């Protein structure tokens, strides 16, 4: 690991000011000389591997604003402070009751130790676990723009079949983000240009020809809160995760589903897919296929076909298309049968 300067800003303004002094408007957060850290379960790992090499690390855990560590539930929705830990949110009784898909996605992520360390904001900003990204001897456009993508012709079992480009097929490996994009969450961020509200669906960027630009955030912007509106489909929701082993493994395929039903018919559906795409993936084609339909095996299967109609599998990950379809069908039917 390269030497770096470690600072603990006292408040958000000080943190933003410190980052602004050592970054420019053109710097990407993942490549900036100054980077923020909270739980550290992702950044510290990549600093050890030499993938990330900031000159300055700004630890946000001393920030004085109490709202950063609070979960607030109202009739309008739920607000998570950015520094709330994954384990705390997963165990919150109101989260489990009103937003089961959120509780599921957090409970099924990582290990208990990591969930107790990792912050919610840090979790949604986690970087890919692509083996070719993590190993600096391989070509990787996400790590070194223009160097190529070794995964294209390499062992790509874990890689994406949706949202890929000629420059990158790395999978987004998070779980919590799928629940947030399904529930129309928004992000609050603060930086040198002020505060802003970002729809979660716009936070992550498709790789296209610039896979090193991963999010819509500026290098000196801090996520301060994640807000989820109160919607009728939030109560009937769940997250299903399929993986190689039952715990401490990333998804091969996952589905976050929320349903607003009128008897057996779908008034509205919210669907997001994980483990199969380069970014948190909203399956709007599948949602449209279910609109007004009776939710049964046939309609769920039709929705799954729509969700993966544009899939582009490669040599070792073609199984993810069928696995993803079966995962979505199961998630839809199990969500339909929930007692709410």
Automatic annotation (TrEMBL):
Molecular function terms from GO: xanthine dehydrogenase activity
Record EC number: 1.17.1.4
Enzyme class per UniProt: oxidoreductase
Domain (FAD-binding PCMH-type) ranges: 1-233
Pfam families (alphabetical): CO_deh_flav_C (PF03450), FAD_binding_5 (PF00941)
Keyword Magnesium: no
InterPro entries on file: CO_DH_flav_C, CO_DH_flav_C_dom_sf, Diverse_Substr_Oxidored, FAD-bd_PCMH, FAD-bd_PCMH-like_sf, FAD-bd_PCMH_sub1, FAD-bd_PCMH_sub2, Mopterin_DH_FAD-bd
Keywords on record: FAD, Flavoprotein, Oxidoreductase
Entry-linked PROSITE patterns: FAD_PCMH (PS51387)
SUPFAM superfamilies xrefs: CO dehydrogenase flavoprotein C-terminal domain-like (SSF55447), FAD-binding/transporter-associated domain-like (SSF56176)
Name of the protein in question: Xanthine dehydrogenase YagS FAD-binding subunit
Native source organism of the sequence: Mesorhizobium shonense
């Amino acid at each position: 690991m390269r030497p770096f300067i470690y600072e603990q800003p006292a408040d958000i303004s000080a943190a933003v000011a410190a980052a602004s002094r050592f970054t420019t408007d053109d710097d990407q957060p993942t490549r900036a000389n100054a980077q923020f850290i909270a739980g550290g379960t992702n950044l510290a790992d990549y600093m050890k591997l030499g993938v990330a090499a900031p000159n300055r690390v700004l630890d946000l855990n001393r920030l004085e604003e109490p709202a950063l560590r609070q979960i607030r539930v109202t009739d309008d929705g739920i607000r998570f402070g950015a520094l709330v830990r994954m384990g705390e949110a997963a165990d919150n009784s109101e989260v489990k009751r009103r937003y089961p898909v959120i509780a599921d996605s957090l409970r099924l992520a990582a290990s208990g130790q990591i969930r107790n360390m990792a912050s919610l904001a840090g979790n949604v900003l986690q970087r890919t676990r692509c083996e070719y990204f993590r190993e600096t001897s391989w070509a990787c456009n996400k790590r070194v723009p223009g160097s190529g993508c070794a995964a294209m012709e390499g062992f790509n079992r874990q890689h994406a079949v949706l949202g890929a480009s000629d420059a990158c097929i790395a999978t987004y490996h998070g779980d919590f983000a799928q629940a947030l994009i399904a529930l129309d969450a928004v992000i609050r961020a603060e930086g040198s240009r002020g505060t802003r509200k970002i729809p979660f669906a716009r936070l992550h960027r498709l790789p296209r020809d610039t896979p090193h630009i991963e999010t819509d955030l500026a290098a000196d912007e801090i996520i301060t809160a994640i807000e989820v509106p109160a919607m009728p489909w939030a109560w009937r929701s769940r997250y299903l995760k399929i993986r190689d082993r039952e715990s401490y493994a990333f998804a091969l395929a996952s589905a976050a589903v929320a349903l607003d039903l009128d008897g057996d018919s779908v008034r509205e559906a919210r669907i997001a897919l994980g483990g199969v795409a380069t970014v948190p993936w909203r399956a709007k084609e599948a949602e449209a296929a279910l609109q007004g339909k009776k939710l049964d095996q046939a309609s769920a299967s039709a929705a799954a076909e729509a969700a993966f109609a544009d899939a582009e599998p490669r040599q070792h990950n073609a199984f993810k298309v069928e696995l993803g379809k079966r995962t979505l069908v199961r998630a839809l039917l199990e969500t339909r049968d929930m007692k709410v």
